[in-house]
Amino acid sequence: MNSRPIGVYDSGVGGLTVVREISGKLPWERVVYFGDTARVPYGEKTAGELLRFSREIITFLIDQGSKFIIAGCNTTSSQVLDDVKSEFDIPIIGVLRPGAYAASRATKTGRIGVIATVGTTRSGAYEKTIREYLPEGQVFSAACPELVPLIEKGDLSSQETVRLLHDYLDPLMEEDIDVLVLGCTHYPYLIDHIRRIVGPHVEIVDPAKETVTVTAAALHELGLQSHEKTGPHAFIVSGDPLRFAAVGRKLLGDNLTPVRQVNLSLESRELSCYNQAT
Ligand code: DGL
Question: What is the CATH number of domain 96-206?
Answer without folding.
Answer: 3.40.50.1860
